[in-house]
Write a structure and sequence with these properties.
The protein has 215 residues and is α+β, with helices and mostly antiparallel strands. It is 38% helix and 24% strand. 37% of the residues are buried.
Length: 215
Amino acid sequence: MKDDIRLTPDLLLQGYAAGIFPMAEGRDDPEVFWVDPRMRGVLPLDRFHISRSLARAMRRTDWILRMDADFAGVVDGCADRVDTWINSEIRRLYLDLHRRGQARSIEVWDGNALVGGVYGVVLKGAFFGESMFSRRTNASKMALAAAVDHLRRTGFTLFDTQFLTPHLATLGAQEVSRATYHARLSHALSVHSADFTAAPVGSFQDVVQRMTHTS
């Protein structure tokens, strides 16, 4: 259903807390609508699948992990594709949320170049993953692995991926019913101790060591 009311960051957070999220039909479509999927994608924080090849690449890389160094650049990287649901209104809203500390990014840097990342909205113990992008092989997978590791270490209980794609399924994501999702969301929203900034993201070597020791 189209929303005729201009969205604000507060309305956006109310939507996430109610289990819905915003999208646009395309980059040039000015309207935003709410989505409430019958089946929801989630990525259990204790079941991320790190393949041997990905673990090897993370151990050997000299890429750098950063948090919130270029949030706008991550959003723009996610929108830089032929078909995107990120229009100018959605971009404005997430940048506003970022300034309030309620939208965050985990980024992959090759020297001074942003080559991949993932961003999402944080609300109590829930992380609503919005999108990810990659300009180098494995960069988005590495960013996602780092995000899962970071959320697990900082007290989050829910990683909402919105939809389940074949790519996410290979990494451990699952599809759950709307009722199951709402139960998990309710639990996550009761967690007041989660703090995205409670720990540094560290290095890819740190991430893969923690993940392979707990998988």
